[in-house]
Design a protein that fits this description.
3 helices, elongated, Umud Fragment, subunit A
């Protein structure tokens, strides 16, 4: 079951805000006398709680909707950049400001760049968030064959990472998209990769996981509409997988 936290937070903020407004503009003049009546004590208690919680809920709603939202990495599809159990901050204003719940953009702030690590809503199930790397921009032709990535006819260079030649027994390489070098994993010969050539439609972005042979990305689910972008992943603020001790060394790491 997927819980829509944005909807719950928005409804709670709206409800407590309405109660506070009712008290301020309608009920306050009658409150001192009414509070002595037993039948009105429940309403008075509701008003007191609403006045306490409304500022907190409003603050959290604004920060979560327009500034930063926490997100937990649920799988290994973005290894070695992100590990299962990483907790990250997603910059919500990176690609425009959107109304909570409705997800309607009302202010343009920027567009995704090749190499950005992006959280987006799955088109087939909008309540589920995915995180991948932007590989193809609108109009691009992206080809992935035999572990070789080509964009608009130009092969993307990859170098074996000699400093860290393996990652959990999987070969690690350094790939550079634009000015953002990052690690990728290639699990040949056994893999679940899908080769092919893909043309990115206008208003869409082609996403791939850094764990190239273990990622359900745009090769499987198609390019992602701009309307489904949530924000850019920027920092790791905690790593804790299950009952293990936190990995303090990952805290504060910038996501490349």
């Amino acid at each position: 079951m997927n819980i829509n936290l944005a909807l719950i937070l928005t409804l709670l903020t709206a409800f407590t805000g309405i109660v506070v407004a009712f008290d301020r503009f309608v009920y306050r003049s009658k409150r001192s006398a009414a509070e002595t009546a037993v039948e009105n004590r429940g309403l008075a208690t509701l008003i007191d709680y609403s006045r306490s919680f409304f500022p907190v809920l409003l603050f959290v709603l604004v920060i979560r909707s327009f500034v930063f939202e926490p997100f937990r990495i649920p799988s290994g599809s973005m290894m070695p950049t992100l590990l299962q159990g990483d907790y990250i901050f997603v910059k919500k204003y990176a690609y425009g400001l959107r109304l909570p719940v409705l997800e309607t953009k009302f202010w343009e702030t920027g567009m995704p760049q090749r190499g950005d690590v992006v959280v987006f809503r799955l088109p087939s199930e909008p309540n589920i968030n995915y995180i991948k790397r932007v590989i193809g921009l609108p109009g691009d032709q992206v080809s992935y064959r035999n572990h070789v990535l080509t964009i608009n006819g130009e092969q993307v260079a990859t170098l074996r990472d000699d400093e860290q030649p393996v990652f959990r027994s999987i070969p690690r390489f350094i790939e550079k998209l634009g000015d953002r070098p990052h690690g990728i994993l290639i699990q040949a010969p056994l893999n679940s990769s899908r080769d092919g050539t893909f043309v990115v439609r206008d208003g869409h972005y082609f996403m791939m996981g850094d764990n190239r042979d273990n990622s359900k990305d745009s090769r499987f689910i198609g390019a992602i509409p701009e309307t489904h972008l949530v924000g850019e992943a920027v920092r790791i603020w905690m790593h804790m997988d299950g009952f293990e001790w936190p990995d303090w060394g990952r805290i504060g790491t910038k996501i490349q």
